[in-house]
Amino acid sequence: MPTVRKKAVGGDSDLQWLGQTYGLPNLPGSTSRYVPLSGRRPDLEGERDVSIGAGCFDEFLWIFADDARNSNLDIAEQTQQLRSIFHNKPLNQLSDVLNEYKSGLQDLVQWGVTDNADLLVWIAAGDPESWPTVIIQAGQLGAVASPRSSTATVLQLLTGSLRVPFFPSDFPNERPEFSANPYA
Fold it and tell me: Is the residue at 141 inside a domain?
């Protein structure tokens, strides 16, 4: 299983992120199950595994989950919609990224979105441990590719070491926060 361990900045500094993949037959066009973020956090009795399921960082960056109750946050549902929307459309800079990774639209698996409608996707070709992440700009289809996993990409975004030119300058906050439902 692919793993990336690094201390997160802010909020709960003992939180460590781990990316994992599992088998799943029902994801359209794929044979893998996806958990964009999971990790370990200390509790009173030591450490315990936790998954960071569907939810939002800083009321901006939404993370999807498999079989999410809200279909807008479900990996399989959103991947199917992404592929349907992009089918037979000019993909601008995204085409260059897909060509670089010798991949096509059928290899994209959406695992996140921003409040600006920018998409976060894996290029699911080859070894799952080496799937890169692509951040696709809403409307313009500009693309920023990260050769890192979703977990590493989110960590880089939250620490500010990965700056995306089309993300707001005030993201992330100094102390990034995760919420399963920030509007509750």
Answer: yes
